Request: fold
Amino acid sequence: MLSVLIPTYDYDACALATEMYRQCKANDIPFEIICRDDASDSPLIVRNQEINALENCSFDVNPVNLGRGRNINSMAAEAQYDWLLILDCDMFPTSPHFIAQYLSLTTEPGLEIVYGGIKYHTDKPAKNQLLRWVYGHEREAVPHEKREQDRFTATLTSNLLVRRKLLLTHPFSGEIKEYGYEDLVFTTTLAKSGVRVRQADNPAYHLNLETSAIFLGKTKAALRNLRFLMDKEMLTEQESVVIRTFRKIRKFGLNHAVAFFYKLSEPLLRSVLLSPNPSLFLFDIYKIGYFCSIKKSR
Reply:
């Protein structure tokens, strides 16, 4: 019936695995839970070994780092059931009926993939984590009614129910070795193949808020990967607002000017984004400025 896949990297996944175990047992279904650390060399690996004590649950460690997408592909290939539930290790269901709600959807004719959504706790985190929290609330925690209007770009793979056959047919790209935009490449591939993503109101909390400085660093890494994906034509302006904006800027010959402005203003933009009052408008300016600057350096 259900294989729960928990890709992990340097994170304590015991609470999530235990909750998934409890809910699967409560629903009296055939299930397995596969949790796999992607060669993080973390001290938390010892803690996560406790998952092996749960019935039908396993935890192991990749000998080499595969990247998140290929880690999921590997677990999917080994899974034994028709339905896969992909949950990132730092997610946690908002409802004790999380599994039951997903199971109720599997009877829909023709259903192949369901995105349940993401939420963030309403309590503000520490001041040095506010950029990630504000971004999550405003850009990721999209109500399912609104997600229905743009099923693919609004879909993340951190809380995803998918038929195993579909994922094996359309796996995460093996060309993506670096961080960033794997979700968008995956859903773009599905869209081009005519696969319909079902949007559901079955969210999970995103718990692991990195500091604003770390989030900015990861954003820049993701933008460098987006450049690679654009050059490989794996993503275009149709799927990415950043690419679309960049190409408009370049069309008018302004990309060098924007890159120059970014280099001049980066310290000021960074200080605002790391402050207790981060602005997503300035965050967007920061992103397009950085993207123009890395394109210029090629």
